[in-house]
Amino acid sequence: MDVKYLFMCAIISVIVLSTPVSAPDVSIDISGEIQGYVEYFSFENITNSTYQHFYLEWLNSGSVACKVKIRADISKDNKTIYTDWSQEKLLKPGAYDSFDIYWLAPEDGDYRGILTAYYCYESEKIKEVRFSAVNTNISKKISLEDLADISITNTQNTIKLNIRKKKGAEVLPPLVIIPSEYPMGWYLESKKLEPTKGKISGTISYDTDYWREEPITLEIMSEDGKYYAKKVITLKKPQSIYPAYALAGFLVLLFVLRHVKKPRKRATKLYIKKK
Questions:
Q1: Cβ distance 111 to 129 under 8 Å?
Q2: Number of folded domains in the chain?
Q3: Structural domain ending residue among the three candidates 234, 251, 268
């Protein structure tokens, strides 16, 4: 075989093998899915002398964790008369949780409820129901304030309730808290609170894009519909506690500096040894 031919083949092989080969870029794009659905739903076809309770279980079937809350728009004679909200809960992908909405009809009649789910800043109409309310006369109910003392305060985003059974009164039952009048565009949840050792201490959340002092009406009803109370409060902007603590600390320091006596210096005697 020709030596020159073998030499040329060797040179060509070295050049080919030493030349880098660029592979095409492979891009893998995994897109998230925002979706969910109702696994279970119930409500009362007729509310007789008590509140309406919408109950549902929501499954986050997407691939993104979402904060979920449910809104109920109540209408009568084709006119929306009230908007009510459930609690807001964070659901991870594949997780589900229950949501409650309570509402008390102001008068007897036929009503329609449209339920909408809000999740990951998306909204979806999920249920439309019709129901009736009868025997809504609350004047026939026993005042809850005959049974318990009610105290209501607020923070920047919660309304705090402290309800304590009066001495000698019967056992305090579970209570449903329903915000019945509040500014349009605000979020206030309705909630059931359970008693513990003769008292109920709990909160309901609220939120707004623009905070201001506003009157809020809360209707409170026992789970069995026997007791009822209506309370109106004006939300107050909480004062920061840090300036108060700083002032108290400064006053204590000033008191200490003025009244604590400094230790006296002892006189030092100088002894000179005589020669």
A1: no
A2: 2
A3: 234
- Whether pLDDT at 114 is above 70: yes
DSSP 8-state code for residue 141: S
pLDDT digits (tens, 9 = 90+) for 196-253: 988 999 999 999 998 888 999 999 999 999 999 999 999 887 765 555 455 566 566 6
Answer for the pair 38, 86: CB distance below 8 angstroms, yes or no: no
**Are residue 117 and residue 166 in the same domain, yes or no?**
no
Whether the model clears a pTM of 0.70, i.e. scores above it, the answer is yes
- C-alpha gyration radius of the chain: 35
β-strands 227-234, 142-143 pairing:
parallel
- Strand 96-103 and strand 191-193: the pairing is unpaired
The set of residues, in sequence order, having a beta carbon less than 8 Å from that of 186 and lying 6+ positions away, is: 206, 207, 208, 214
pLDDT tens digits, one per residue of 34-82: 999 999 999 999 999 999 999 999 999 999 999 999 999 999 999 999 9
Q: What are the φ and ψ backbone dihedral angles of 94, each rounded to 5 degrees?
A: 85, -5
The boundaries of the domain holding residue 148 are 138-234
Asked whether residue 178 is assigned to any structural domain, the reply reads: yes
Single residue among 74, 108, 134 that ends a domain in this structure:
134
pLDDT at 181 > cutoff 80: yes
CATH number where 49 lies = 2.60.40.10
50 occurs within a structural domain: yes
Contact 187, 207 (CB under 8 A): yes
Torsion of CA 246, 248, 252, 258, to 10 degrees: 90
